[in-house]
Specification:
By secondary structure, the chain is of the alpha/beta class. The chain has a single domain, classed as NAD(P)-binding Rossmann-like Domain (Rossmann fold, 3-Layer(aba) Sandwich), CATH 3.40.50. Helices cover 41% and strands 15% of the residues. The chain is built from 7 helices and 7 strands. It has a 7-stranded parallel sheet with strand order 3-2-1-4-5-6-7, sandwiched between helices. α2 links the parallel β2 and β3. The chain binds nicotinamide-adenine-dinucleotide (NAD). The site of nicotinamide-adenine-dinucleotide (NAD) has 24 residues, from α1.
């Protein structure tokens, strides 16, 4: 078999979502064994059904809630039973509270705390457990997903007159993911461990046409992205081609942030 991830055992959280599933598909075609972890069994099944039978032996769907420590520990145990020691992980789960996306003026403390705990706290806890696993074996590569909202303030003018918004907690969480990535990479020096993140622009998904037009005007060639354009950056960071890249934030935004 050929491919940049042959011999890798890769765990992807949020693997039934937009970026997670595109990353899973790309990783499978690059030869990896892939553990698909997601809280939604229905979405996992629907995704697995799209894969050809020739690759299914290398695909292991697991229902998991990665917002709790017990859920993360149980997921890692089951993943190792399915594939053997993990060499790689992508954290792409996107747990959101009922109040996610509220305007700043209407933000409620309970929703704010839940989203900070689950999205940023969850990313830290997932990192703690997967990196401990890598330490106990021969090392490994971890990729987190941040966002352009973690490196720039939102372009609020793009949302005017639409029901869309970009929440303050999202920018804060995503900036935190970038800081966490640097911290983890340096902390695990000399252990054959790499931690990087990708900051994608928006993924095209039936957004308001007026928003799309304004968003496109800030970009260079495409505007909103496909999940596959993000997945290819994640695969690069997991591959040997990126062996000297550590603690970095790879911006994939068609120039939105320029
Ligand atoms: N979609 C975008 O435009 C975009 C842009 C930049 C960054 N991102 C980031 O990319 C990441 C993935 O986003 P996406 O667009 O693929 O999201 P998505 O909603 O399409 O997928 C997220 C997946 O996570 C799963 N999930 C939710 N809670 C979970 C939990 N507790 N445990 C396990 N799985 C859980 C969901 O079932 C879903 O399948 C997020 O961190 C998001 O902030 C997305």
């Amino acid at each position: 078999m050929h491919g940049r991830l042959v011999g890798k055992n890769l765990l992807i959280t949020g693997s039934a979502g937009r970026i997670g599933s595109a990353t899973a598909r790309a990783a499978i075609s690059e030869g990896a064994s892939v553990v698909l972890a997601d809280i939604s069994g229905d979405k996992l099944k629907a995704f697995k059904d799209t894969l050809s039978s020739s690759v299914k032996a290398r695909v292991h769907p697991l229902i998991a809630d990665v917002t709790t420590e017990a859920g993360i520990i149980s997921l890692l145990d089951q993943a190792v039973s399915a594939t053997g020691p993990l060499t790689s992980a992508v954290h792409s789960a996107y747990p959101t509270s009922y109040g996610w996306g509220s305007p700043f003026e209407k933000l409620r403390a309970s929703h704010l705390h839940e989203d900070l705990a689950n999205q940023l706290g969850g990313a830290i806890l997932f990192s703690q457990h997967i990196l401990r696993h890598f330490q106990a074996h021969t090392g490994g590569d971890l990729v987190h997903i941040s966002s352009i909202q973690g490196i720039c303030s939102p372009k609020f003018e793009h949302y005017e007159g639409t029901t869309m918004t970009s929440p303050i907690e999202y920018s804060t969480i995503k900036a935190g993911v970038i800081a966490m990535t640097r911290w983890l990479a340096k902390y695990h020096s000399n252990q054959n461990i790499r931690v990087n993140c990708v900051s994608p622009g928006g993924i095209l998904d039936k957004q308001d046409p007026e928003f799309l037009k304004r968003y496109r005007s800030s970009c260079t060639n495409y505007g909103m992205l496909s999940s596959e354009q993000v997945a290819s950056a994640v695969i690069f960071l997991l591959s040997a081609e990126a062996e000297a890249i550590n603690g970095q934030n790879l911006i994939v935004d068609d120039g939105w942030s320029l």
